[in-house]
Amino acid sequence: MPDSAPLRLAQRVTSLKPSPTLTINAKAKHLKAQGVDLANLSAGEPDFDTPEHIKEAAVKAIRDGFTKYTPVGGIPELKEAVIARLAEDYAVTYRPEQILVSTGGKQALYNIAQALLDPGDEVIIPVPYWVSYPPIVELAGGVPRYLETRAEAGFDIDPAALEALVGPRTRAIILNSPSNPTGCVYSRATLAAVARVAAAHGLVVISDDIYDRIRFDGRPPENILSVAPDLADRVVLVNGVSKTYAMTGWRIGYMAGPEALVKAATRVQGQSTSNPNSIAQMAALAALTGPQECVDRMTAAFRERRDFITRRLNALPGVTCPEPMGAFYAFADLSAYHGARAGDRAIGDSLAMTDYLLDEARIASVPGVAFGDDRFVRFSYASDLATLEAALARLEAALGRLTRG
Ligand SMILES: *Cc1c(COP(=O)(O)O)cnc(C)c1O
Fold first, then answer.
1. What pLDDT, on a 0 to 100 scale, did the predictor assign at position 43?
2. Mean pLDDT estimate for the chain
3. Fewest C-beta in 10 Å: which of 10, 154, 167, 210?
4. Which band of pLDDT confidence, cut at 50, 70 and 90, is reported for residue 361?
């Protein structure tokens, strides 16, 4: 029989794009492998190696034959370690039934959306946002509702604007502090204001705390439960070991929240991926319960780089970069160069800018449009200072070659 009908894919994937950050990172790694001297400032991962004691725990797990299925939601020791960490960081008490360990914080978020949303349900996402929030919501049939913020106001949430966005179908809001891409950290006043709106309208708060221990003001981790502990029955915390312990490849994240939601998310996971990798769970256990100096050391390095890159970016003509308070990204407004040209090349938007920087400055960066704000470009500073210094010199030269008109 002749094969005439073209392969038809499901509607839900026809508009699904690959993660722009993962795509650019892959392209940068490919160019580097070909010998191109490139500063890869596109990566959403620490440049440090996973600490030795964590690797050893994984090697031991393999040697001990800890290589079989575990309970879907994670091994009890790891859940207890998560509970202990959350108790220490946020003074909250969880039971094991309220914890789900997943294949990365990303799968935790995916499971939450699947467990929470019916078609047409709305989720409020502050802009700029992490690239994966909108597709995760949409794959569950949900509808993102974007909450605009202002760079001049530190990308802070305006409670009145939030309230105005809430409608009858609004189910949840996603918070991410410290933020990828802006590095902004919500003040306690902002968190309290969001808590009041969430309580008044029965919203679930999805608190993505993946960068909670990478902050530069010396303060301990903070999230909405730090200011509104009474909201615990409608807050789900998402966290993981990827960023804090330089373990992005190991794929361990977790959620903590209301038991009904966590149980539903566990059923979703049980019918999709089952348990997260058994060996990586042992490594994550060592990360959470072992010495924490590695976290302080990496955070101190990020802080030094933050100081360097924000100073250099803000010294460039026409560039403004709000000072990041956490995570490891500088989010710089380069829109003063939109409309400029280099030869017959026109810079019209953030994507054209990052293409130009890749070709002409050998810097891989991520266009702000991927995060919902086309004026900006995200530079990761999870690279050593020497790489950053060389990259910033090339950036300055490349911007200097752009001409108006
Ligand atoms: C990296 C990241 C995650 C999840 O990372 P995993 O590796 O899946 O744990 C979640 N949210 C934000 C904002 C991130 O940057």
1. 86
2. 95
3. 10
4. very high
Category of 270 on φ-ψ map: left (φ > 0), alpha (ψ -120 to 50) or beta: alpha
Ligand 1: residue of 215, 242, 288 to mutate (most ligand atoms within 8 A of CB) is 242
Enumerate residues 6+ apart whose C-beta is below 8 A from 31: 38, 364
Q: Which two tokens stand for residue 4?
A: 């005439």
Distance CA 348, CA 355 (A): 11
The topology (CATH level 3) of 68-289 is: Aspartate Aminotransferase; domain 2 (3.40.640)
Residue whose C-alpha is closest to residue 181's, from 124, 128, 246, 135? 128
Ligand 1 centroid–CA 44 distance in Å is 8
Contact status, residue 358 vs residue 352, Cβ threshold 8 Å: no
Q: Give the dihedral of Cα atoms 72, 74, 77, 80; nearest 10 deg.
A: -110
- 306 CA from centroid of ligand 1 (Å): 20
Query: Nearest to residue 400, comparing CAs of 360, 355, 362?
Result: 360
Task: Return the closest-CA partner of residue 239 out of 222, 259, 227, 256.
Answer: 256
More confident residue, 79 or 21: 79
Q: What is the DSSP string of 18-32?
A: PPHHHHHHHHHHHHH
Over residues 54-95, the pLDDT tens digits come to 999 999 999 999 999 999 999 999 999 999 999 999 999 999
Whether the predicted pLDDT of 3 surpasses 80: no
Amino acid code (one letter) for 41: L
CB 229 within 8 A of CB 92: yes
Q: In the structure encoding, which two tokens stand for residue 214, read together?
A: 């990478």
Fold (CATH) for 11-49+294-399 = Aspartate Aminotransferase, domain 1 (3.90.1150)
pLDDT computed for residue 245 by the predictor: 98
The ranges assigned to domains in the chain are 11-49+294-399, 68-289
Q: How far is CA 245 from the centre of its chain?
A: 15
Per-residue pLDDT reduced to its tens digit, 213-227: 999 999 999 999 999
